[in-house]
Amino acid sequence: MGSMNETGPEGSEHQVRTGAELARVAEQDRDLAENLIERARRDGLQLVGENGLLTGLLKLVLEGALEAEMAEHLGYEKGDPAGAGSGNCRNGTSRKTVLSQVGPVTIDIPRDRAGSFTPQIVPKHARRVDGFSETIVSLYAKGLTTGEIQAHLAEVYGVDVSRDLVSRATAQVSADLAAWRTRPLDRVYAVLLIDCIYIKIRDGAVANKPVYIAVGINLDGDRDVLGMWVGTGGEGAKQWMTWLTELRNRGVHDVLIACCDGLKGLPESVNDVWPQTDVQLCVVHLVRTSLRYAAKQHWSAIARQLREVYTAKTADEAEQRFDRFAEEWGERYPAVIDTWRRHWEHVIVFLRFPAPIRRVVYTTNMIESLNSRFRQATRRRGHFPDDDAALKVLYLVIRNPIKNRPNVTGKTPSWKQAINSLAGYYGDRVTDH
């Protein structure tokens, strides 16, 4: 193990802290924080807001940092005789109030006589310190309206912000969304999942409009949302061609397996854009569709027997089981049988593969955790004024995954098994990338 003392580039020694020392520092920081909170409670002090304990601490930290910036700018510390005759010197302070995570903070910003000092910690003309805009955007992502954000900031931080400030804080989201929707994508995706969620959006009148979500799993097993589009509900092959071609133009040259609901024109459009792609219909959606044609008293039996069909070991076995299902239910519910017969070619695709791949591609339910968060963020708003407003909130949900919770983005479990099976089946479409 090397020496604990290292020599810097100019020969000065500095102490390199061990993990144990860093842990002690962290423990001391926690103790300090707990002591401050205890003191605030004991003395009846506020933590945030005007005259709050944390507000005062932030003022000290910011002013200390600004003074350090000024010293670096001038080349000498405050009161240092070395500054005499240097050509520039301190010239008092200017007072400014900025918004912060703990409420408004009034700070004294040092000035220099030459007027050349440009602070970085609190930039000129800035009315917020880092973190405040993020708070506004975070509240926006949770589905709060502009008025609700104003009320929240007033209640929690004692800050009276204007609607214009909230709008400016969220305006950057539009630019970020536009960049995200046009970002380059991977060349090959093992799996492409397409699903939709309905959101109330004003289009003349308020209506439930579908938002289609495309999630890709690349060859490394990384899941990501590739695109989102607001539709009308009457999309056909032409519209799907436009959206899928958009993905291809962003770099997606091949998709091994696409899993989707039985959306009109979608399977055909997938193969028009990527001719070699195997299209798998979401079995879970197909079962749900089947139950709509059946009396509720028969749902349990039908769902159980259909499960026996799609959990068969082979496509031949699945077909035999479905024939028995059709014999039992065909006369009573012909629409159920017809639905499965019409889509059979795209129902049994996943049965070619071993279990690790089947779990990934037989349903789009992987997107359900994302849809659940979408619903949470959009439900409280009632409706959105336009498509862009809805997409902004959905984008923020995607951008902010929840720790220790299932998220649509991230690594796919047991991916090594799956990619080995895919490589064996698809050959150089996998191994050449």
UniProtKB/TrEMBL annotation:
Pfam families per record: Transposase_mut
Source organism, top-level taxon: Bacteria
PROSITE patterns: TRANSPOSASE_MUTATOR (PS01007)
Sample GO molecular function, one term: transposase activity
Stretches that traverse the bilayer: none
Keyword DNA-binding: yes
Keyword Ion transport annotated: no
Keywords: DNA recombination, DNA-binding, Transposable element, Transposition
Gene Ontology BP, a term: DNA transposition
Function comment: Required for the transposition of the insertion element.
UniProt similarity note: Belongs to the transposase mutator family.
UniProt name for this protein: Mutator family transposase
UniProt organism field: Streptomyces spiralis
Lineage: Bacteria, Bacillati, Actinomycetota, Actinomycetes, Kitasatosporales
